[in-house]
TrEMBL record:
Organism: Cryobacterium roopkundense
Protein name: Phosphate transport system permease protein PstA
Keywords: Cell membrane, Membrane, Phosphate transport, Transmembrane, Transmembrane helix, Transport
Function: Part of the binding-protein-dependent transport system for phosphate; probably responsible for the translocation of the substrate across the membrane.
Transmembrane region(s): 25-45, 51-71, 92-117, 137-165, 177-203, 209-228, 331-353
Family: Belongs to the binding-protein-dependent transport system permease family. CysTW subfamily.
Xref: CDD domains: TM_PBP2
GO cellular component labels: plasma membrane
InterPro entries named in the record: MetI-like, MetI-like_sf, Phosphate_PstA, Phosphate_transprt_permease
Annotated localization: Cell membrane
GO molecular function, one term: phosphate transmembrane transporter activity
Length: 362
């Protein structure tokens, strides 16, 4: 007696209540293709100027959300269709959030790369330059000096304040400090610049005072609350068991903080500090008020005006000379330089956080 093995019946995924594999990807690509064709037709008809890549991705993603819901509801039912719609909306939100960033980076690179690649852009200043040529060396040096001084001022104050709030602060004083830190977090940057200008104008009795150290003070007003908040949150993440174990061994509190608390939270603290630097390095208004602008090199924070990259970009765009295109190109190149510096700071923050993470420490 022989047994007969019957083959499993073939089923079509469309009739089995399930969309084919990779259907979401193909529907997304089809949606982008349809939207792209629509913009091509508009371009040929003269309704729009050029092909709109951002519009294609945006409206194509919106069309994908509608299409995936319709197809899934027709094949898989309302429950699965709702699940696919929510997934599509989350994906669409991610794509839409990236569009401004990608658009800014693309526009800055395209417009700033010609001047960025000139031989003198990083080796000279704008002294005696009225047309093409010149460079951004004086602005880069001013940015590094002012931001570095602001960091030297802000990090000790911010870190010690965070240590007080977490390790020692109790009662009304701690609550008052927390309240004022929250208030300082929301201070407009131009107010910080006006504060620094008024402070030094009164101290030196000079209503026209402009110098780099004043810009560092203005930036430190903006940096301190960020450093305090980020450091405070990192210090709170240190388990209390580590502190209690040190106290049980007879270690004083200050030594526990230095040897246990700070090494455990150093990765997060350094990351917060680097992000606070990236947050203030692009400020224009406070530096325009107190640091001013100049076309010459200045290495002295305590004397004369000092140029910075954000003010350089503003000045090149707002005060165009006879060759306006050269000024605009330098403004875009300065913006590209600033973006690269901020990206480098964020990369350094990630590397430092990985190196000093507790799992890699002793």
């Amino acid at each position: 007696m022989t047994s007969v093995i019957e083959a499993a019946p073939l089923t079509n995924s469309l009739t089995a209540g399930k969309l084919p594999k990779r259907s979401s990807l193909w529907i997304l690509l089809a949606s982008w293709a349809v939207t792209a064709a629509f913009f091509v037709v508009l371009n040929l008809a003269g309704a729009v100027d050029g092909f709109n890549v951002v519009g294609t991705v945006f409206f194509g993603t919106v069309l994908y959300c509608i299409a995936i819901y319709v197809f899934s509801r027709a094949v898989e039912g309302s429950r699965k269709a709702t699940d696919r719609l929510m997934t599509a909306l989350v994906t669409a939100a991610f794509v839409i959030a990236l569009l401004p960033l990608i658009s800014i980076i693309y526009t800055t690179v395209v417009n700033g790369l010609p001047a960025f690649l000139t031989p003198t852009f990083f080796t000279s200043s704008q002294r005696n330059i009225v047309g093409e040529g010149g460079g951004v060396l004086h602005a880069i040096m001013g940015t590094l000096l002012i931001t570095g001084m602001a960091t030297l001022i802000s990090v000790p104050i911010g870190l010690l304040t965070a240590l007080y709030l977490v390790e020692y602060g109790r009662g009304k004083l701690a609550r008052a400090i927390t309240f004022f830190v929250d208030v300082m977090t929301g201070i407009p940057s131009i107010v910080a610049g006006l504060f620094a200008f008024a402070l030094f104008a009164l101290l030196f009795d000079d209503p026209g005072i402009r110098f780099g150290f004043g810009g560092a003070i203005a930036l430190s007003v903006l940096m301190i609350p960020v450093v305090v908040r980020s450091s405070e949150e990192m210090l709170k993440l240190v388990p209390n068991e580590l502190r209690e174990a040190a106290y049980a061994l007879g270690v004083p509190k200050w030594l526990t903080i230095v040897k246990v608390v700070l090494p455990t939270s150093i990765a997060g603290i350094v990351t917060g500090i680097m992000l606070s630097i990236a947050r203030v390095i692009g400020e224009t208004a406070p530096l325009l008020i107190i640091a001013g602008f100049t076309a010459s090199m200045n290495y002295d924070l305590f004397s004369e005006r000092m140029m910075t990259l954000p003010v350089f970009v503003y000045n090149q765009y707002a005060s165009q000379g006879a060759d306006a295109q050269a000024y605009v190109d330098r403004a875009w190149a300065g913006a590209l330089t600033l973006i690269l510096i901020v990206m480098l700071l964020n990369l350094i923050a990630r590397i430092i956080a990985k190196i000093f993470s507790p799992k890699f420490g002793r």
